[in-house]
Amino acid sequence: MPCPCGSGEEYEACCSQYHLGTANAPTAEKLMRSRYSAFVKQEIAYLKKTTWTAQQKHFDEAGYRDRAANSIWLGLTIHATEDGLETDTRGTVTFTAKSMINGSIDDHTEKSLFKKKIGKWYYVKAVG
Q1: Sign of CA dihedral 39, 44, 50, 52
Q2: Burial annotation 84-105 (CB, 10 A radius, 16+ → b, else e)
Q3: Structure letter (DSSP) for residue 3
Q4: Domain chopping of the chain, boundaries
Q5: Fold (topology level) of 11-126
Q6: Looking at the whole model, is its pTM more than 0.90?
Q7: pLDDT per residue over 71-107, tens digit each?
Q8: Which of 45, 60, 95, 121 could form a disulfide with 31 if both were Cys (CB 3.0 to 4.6 A apart)?
Q9: Cα angle: 74, vertex 75, 80; to 5 degrees
């Protein structure tokens, strides 16, 4: 089965390893892709685990679960990445996540900030 993140790889060889915790996303873009796939696969615990530690106390698990379960996920487009490579400690990814909610198309475009701490990438927040 193709990975929902749009990488062109099979899910088992792509985002599944991150969701299962057998590997960490090596770049900010890979983390972004794996988080999109987590919405598709309803891996809400993974979304919380990959949210910046200080932000986890504000994580709306019920809201994320509802959003993931009640959406038809239509695709992810990565528009730009700035830094966020394996040797970096921060980076941004600009993307559009397309979904259908209650019969309406939602094109969620965001520039996200990611930070790496102790070798793991985390989503921090939407920026600019």
Answers
A1: positive
A2: beeeeeebbbbbebbbeeeeee
A3: -
A4: 11-126
A5: Nuclear Transport Factor 2; Chain: A, (3.10.450)
A6: yes
A7: 999 999 999 999 999 999 999 999 999 999 999 999 9
A8: 121
A9: 150
